[in-house]
Amino acid sequence: MSELEDGKVFSFVVKEAKRLGYTEPDPRDDLGGMDVARKALILARLLGQRINLEDIKVDSLYPDNMGPKSISVDDFINHVLPLLDSEVGEKVAVAASKGNVLRYVCMIEGSRCQVGLQELPKDCPLGRLRGSDNVVEIYSRCYKNSPLVIQGAGAGNDTTAAGVLADIVDLQDLFN
């Protein structure tokens, strides 16, 4: 979303992210929130919550009629995605007029979990987020006023490969 603040068009940003390997093979997994929702489900379960994917409120950036059941990936990227440019651009402009930015955010609070676009102050950790980085803000009894913030690369071939390798090493340790 940060690229849109620089005046780039939504469809161009998505196509470029796909070209760089930052999105899922079908970018609708990212734009529809399902990739984030699956990761949120894993995190929520690690935190002891007994929830299912259906329990997560997911707000998609595209309407159902643009989904994978209706339109191929190529048609979506080349013909349909540009139809979202003005709507997304308008949301970015409205947020900017208030000194804010838009970020696609996952929030886990107790057994509640939601994923979607949020308007945030540009000086908060999520608001300062740029490019393909990810940020996790942890609020707890110890961090209720000022969250513990973890930030780093969140996409790309090298990042994914490093994560898979780390998982393999963890599995090896588990079985040795």
Automatic annotation (TrEMBL):
Record keyword NADP present: yes
Pathway assigned to this chain's UniProt record: Amino-acid biosynthesis; L-threonine biosynthesis; L-threonine from L-aspartate: step 3/5; Amino-acid biosynthesis; L-methionine biosynthesis via de novo pathway; L-homoserine from L-aspartate: step 3/3
Cofactor needs: a metal cation
Keyword field contains Oxidoreductase: yes
Keywords (A to Z) from UniProt: Amino-acid biosynthesis, Kinase, Methionine biosynthesis, NADP, Oxidoreductase, Threonine biosynthesis, Transferase
Enzyme Commission no: 1.1.1.3
Main enzyme class: oxidoreductase
Homoserine dehydrogenase catalytic domain sequence ranges: 2-169
PROSITE patterns according to UniProt: HOMOSER_DHGENASE
GO molecular function: homoserine dehydrogenase activity; kinase activity
Reactions accelerated catalytically: L-homoserine + NADP(+) = L-aspartate 4-semialdehyde + NADPH + H(+)
Record-linked InterPro entries: Bifunc_Aspkin/hSer_DH (IPR011147), HDH_cat (IPR001342), HDH_CS (IPR019811)
Lineage top rank: taxon: Eukaryota
GO biological process, one term: methionine biosynthetic process
The family this protein is said to belong to: Belongs to the homoserine dehydrogenase family.
Protein name from the UniProt record: Homoserine dehydrogenase
Organism in which the protein naturally occurs: Dendrobium catenatum
Lineage: Eukaryota, Viridiplantae, Streptophyta, Embryophyta, Tracheophyta
